Description:
With 473 residues, the chain is of the alpha/beta class. Helix content is 46%, strand content 9%.
Amino acid sequence: MLPGTDAEKIARLEQENAAFRTRIVELESEIQRLKQLLEEAVRAGKRQAAPFSRQKPKANPQPPGRKAGRAYGRRCRRAIPTPIEETVEVPLPQHCSHCQGQIEEIGVVSQYQEEIPAPRVERTEFRLHVGRCAQCGKRVQGRHERQSSDAVGSAGVGIGPRALALATELNKDLGLPYGKTARVLQQAFGLRMSRGGLCQAIARVAGKAQPSYEVLMRRIRSEPSVTADETGWKVAGHLHWAWVFVSRRMTVYSIQPGRGYEQAKVVLGDDFAGFLVRDGWNGYRGFTGAVHQSCCAHLLRRCREMIVGAGEAHPAARFPSQVHGLLQQALQLRDRRDQGQISTHGLAVVRGRIEAQRDRALARNQRSLENQRLANHLRREREWLFPFLHCEGLEATNWRAEQAIRPLVVTRKVWGGNRTHNGARTQGILSSILQTCRQQMRSFAGFVHDLVCSPQPPVIDLTVPSTNKFSAR
Length: 473
């Protein structure tokens, strides 16, 4: 063996040894950083402070209250109420409260106050005239337009449509359990109801609203753009999923036993051909006839978490930083287009550059496992990242569905889900009606009045303006 060969081996081993030492130092630094993050996470879980508070307050926070000058914001005030039910004259005091001097009247000004009327329960007795058909012999009784039920005898004491609507909103929209809903009705209005009675009454409303809910599902399938999301939900102690599908005009909730395409198409149908704005969940890809828009907010959040997890200076943070910057450029280009700051030709040029940068970034191989997962996800979502740059008015995030699903998330924190499948059906129907009424600027109490005070429950299309006088209240 030649002497030079041994020298080369020694030099190579020394280089490898130096590289290993450098790697050890990097790994030790990474271990210390991860230990620190783990300790902070453990301490945050045991801390008694608010869970969503910042770990470190801002060094120079803005002062609270309205800003001066142009930064004041939108100027508005409460409108003068109409009509005025009562006018109260408030005379001057006899003497000044400061110096006890005589007071000379110089004018009269008006102040207005809106107050809740003193609560009371309207107790109505309907004297139903009962007869029998001379031809078929069936029993027949009268029906008044204010009645919410035909029941008599032991079930002949019910609650009216306004009370039903309020109880439904408290339970299905605000997330109050049946016990607290009953307590609100009793303390605020003196209306006594049991939890079981409330549950059965609200379920009856949902049963009568089932045909209107089915119409709502058919209508949302023809909407030009729908935003979707889903979250975990418990039914009878088993894991289900609460789905939400939102357009500008309506919202449909559906609690399903799964989280796949088969459950999503129960609402949208398998031939949905509009715009579908959603997150990166694989189940939505089954809608092959739709034009998809992947939520940019989810991707931005994922990139920020990866950058923080790896460390901004670490090589593994380069790829998520590049993706984050690319998405920000796309959103800024959208804002310029919407504000009329760029021509159609300029939009096409910049859009082409952004898409070319996307393709170059995805063509590179990533060494980090997290970066590989992100790159694979972006390759699957490649053609659905920037449709909002091609279609003006298309939203880049699924914020509509995130906002619509928030009430269910709050409800889940309060009482977990539904005990029965019938309760889950009631939850989906009434939540859909409530949210759609809010979008349509429509009275939910008016909807309930139309529903329960008709001899035969009508099929109400919530996308058609209501003519019920109750809706104006």
